Amino acid sequence: MSNTTANVTTGKPKVSGSIYRAPLGSTLPTDAASDLGAAFACMGYISDNGVTNNNSPESDSVKAWGGDTVLHFQTDKPDTFGFTMLEVQNEEVLKSVYGDDNVTVTAATASDPKQIAIQANSKELEESCWVIDMIMTNHGMKRIVIPKGKITEIGEVHYQDSDAVGYDVTVSAVPDASGNTHYEYMSVGVHA
To answer: Minimal CA–CA distance to 94: which of 149, 174, 165?
Structure first.
């Protein structure tokens, strides 16, 4: 098999949104292009750093007397996704960061704008289903499905006049009933 430049790609966000969250147990997609169910809420714009995935095994080793390494064994294999959500006035983003029960939204009326109230506390965030959609070179599509993951880290939030406010988060995936932490689906080639 020879080198093929058509197999080299970038990962760009879809115009309609790229990161979605739904309640645990929601029906998950099993391909790269089908419509997501109504339970999936869009997280809106993500910073230009895109999404990072750390899925590297951590290992340890055993040395014999004399210094030879005689055994390597896996001790952990965390599967985490990092990204910065920029739509800090999006109620779905706020629910993801602070917890669904800690965000209250009062709809706008003819005389008052929409009101959002947030409670920051030490309640543990809920596990959710996450989907990350992207467009690849040559009109390909890629979808990452995380059946069970939750935000386990939130970076410092900076309020300044020279940059957008954002929530820099890490979503940690845990194994589903089949033992998988995430699924990847690709559709390669031209889409109508």
So the answer is: 165
Q: Is residue 59 domain-resident?
A: no
> Per residue of the chain (192 residues), what is the pLDDT tens digit?
688 777 776 777 776 679 999 999 999 999 999 999 999 999 999 999 999 999 877 788 889 888 888 888 777 778 999 999 999 999 999 999 999 999 999 999 999 999 999 999 999 999 999 999 999 887 789 999 999 999 999 999 999 999 999 999 999 999 999 999 999 999 987 544
Per-residue three-class SS string for 95-126? HHHHCHHHEEEECCCCCCCCEEEECCCCCCCC
Residue 68 domain flag: no
Q: Give the integer Cα–Cα distance in Å for 14 and 73.
A: 39
Residue type, 9: T
* The one-letter amino acid at 164: A
The model carries a pTM of 0.86
Domain holding 101, by residue range, is 9-52+77-187
